[in-house]
Amino acid sequence: MLAIGVLPAAVGAVLLGIGAANDTGWLAITGGIVTGLGMVFYDVTRHSTIDKGMYGRLDRLDGNK
């Protein structure tokens, strides 16, 4: 599940590298933006999966009272 969040960041990093090596400004900027958005998407995905498991355990504990 978390690999889905890493893929956009990896693609963006590759685009950033290609754009910087070829001195293509628009490709480097686009790669940087995609990398940043991929990192944010990864963090949101990771955070939601951790919270989902945590709240499931808390609900089970509250159900025993």
Structure, explained:
The chain has helices at residues 3-21, 25-63. By secondary structure, the chain is mainly alpha-helical. It has one domain. The relative contact order is 0.17.
- Which percent range fits the helix content? over 70%
Order of helices and strands: HH
- The number of helical elements comes to 2
Instruction: Count every beta strand, where a strand is a DSSP E run of 2 or more residues.
Output: 0
Radius of gyration: 18 Å
Shape: rod-shaped
Distance N terminus to C terminus? 33 Å
Features:
single chain; 65 residues; mainly alpha; 2 helices
Concise account of the structure shown:
The chain is mostly helical. The chain has helices at 3-21, 25-63. The protein contains 2 helices and no strands.
Task: Give a topology summary.
Layout: H1 3-21, H2 25-63
Helix pairs in contact: 1-2
